[in-house]
């Protein structure tokens, strides 16, 4: 009986390790750039199965490798919201986000903290995403480092809308 218990425990641990490596991973949010949606210090679940090019849409929260100058490094990771996909045009006028000329509905953004901010317009290249933090006043995002390649996305974080 003892060997069966050990074997069952080993199978369970192996399954959990596989789940952690390839499916779900807990990550701790280290910055305030996604507040009030996700507070700094919160633990969220990174869904590693989801990042397929056709599945990533505006409004989703994505985790991706941190840009470093002109290339990508195996350094930190960032959590941001996709606000535009390849082919769409993005601009910020007096703090309001516009996608393809229409104002975006963003109840999670505190407009009072970002009025007077202007950006763009920028057209997102095919195969890339324009990402912003919900806390626009403090977020370093695509306004700073440009659109990100879909291939840089590690996974998605459920919820956030």
Task: Explain what the structure shows.
It is a single chain. This protein has one domain (24-157): Umud Fragment, subunit A. Strand 6 (96-99) and strand 7 form a beta hairpin. It contains two helices and eleven strands; from the N terminus they run αβββββββββαββ. Mean pLDDT is 78; it is low at 8-22 and 70-74. 24% of the residues are buried. 16% of the residues lie in helices and 38% in strands. The longest helix has 21 residues, at 2-22. It is of the alpha+beta class.
Helix % is: 10-25%
Extract low-pLDDT stretches: 8-22, 70-74
Q: CATH topology, anyone?
A: Umud Fragment, subunit A
Biggest sheet overview: 5 strands, antiparallel
Strand order of the largest sheet: 10-9-4-3-11
Counting helices, strands and paired strands, the structural category is: alpha+beta
CATH architecture: Ribbon
The tally of strands reads 11
Task: Give me the secondary-structure topology.
Blueprint lengths: L1 H21 L1 E5 L14 E5 L13 E8 L2 E15 L3 E5 L2 E4 L2 E2 L15 E5 L4 E5 L9 H4 L2 E2 L3 E5 L4
The gist of it:
The protein is of the alpha+beta class and 161 residues long. The protein has helices at residues 2-22, 142-145, and strands at 24-28, 43-47, 61-68, 71-85, 89-93, 96-99, 102-103, 119-123, 128-132, 148-149, 153-157.
């Amino acid at each position: 009986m003892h060997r069966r218990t050990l074997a069952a425990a080993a199978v369970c641990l192996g399954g959990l390790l596989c789940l952690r490596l390839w499916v779900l991973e807990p990550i701790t949010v280290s910055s305030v750039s996604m507040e009030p949606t996700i507070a700094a210090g919160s633990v969220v679940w990174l869904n590693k199965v989801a990042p397929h090019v056709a599945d990533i849409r505006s409004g989703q929260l994505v985790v991706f490798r941190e840009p470093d100058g002109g290339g990508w490094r195996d350094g930190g990771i960032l959590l941001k919201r996709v606000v535009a996909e390849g082919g769409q045009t993005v601009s910020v006028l007096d703090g309001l986000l516009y996608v393809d000329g229409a104002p975006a509905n963003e109840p999670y953004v505190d407009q009072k903290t970002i009025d007077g901010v202007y950006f763009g317009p920028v057209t997102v290249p095919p195969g890339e995403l324009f990402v912003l933090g919900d806390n626009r006043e403090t977020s370093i995002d695509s306004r700073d480092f440009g659109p990100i390649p879909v291939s840089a996305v590690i996974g998605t974080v459920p919820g956030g809308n």
